[in-house]
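User: structure tokens for this one?
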Amino acid sequence: MAKKQKTGYTTTREVYKTVKKYDHQQFDEFCTRVYTSGFNDGKTSVTEKPIKSITDEQLMEVIGEVKGVGPALKGKIKEAIEAKFGSIGNGKKTDKQEGTIS
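Assistant:
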């Protein structure tokens, strides 16, 4: 006998017997329900964890606090960040900071 799974979808004998009797349409609906349930569980698990983000001002403040980083080097770092990731002067969160995958 197989071990019980602690997580995920577990098919019981009763569900298995019922699904065996399904016609094509009923089976498609069953599969759609299982898929939708898994999709929603995955979506929920991603949004449950808070995402830490910092503003551009906070980033530049921390960089400025590093010993040996003066205004000139701080400016070069900001330029390099802007060249790689785009403008960082608006102080608004982007989609990537809010946790969406692109």
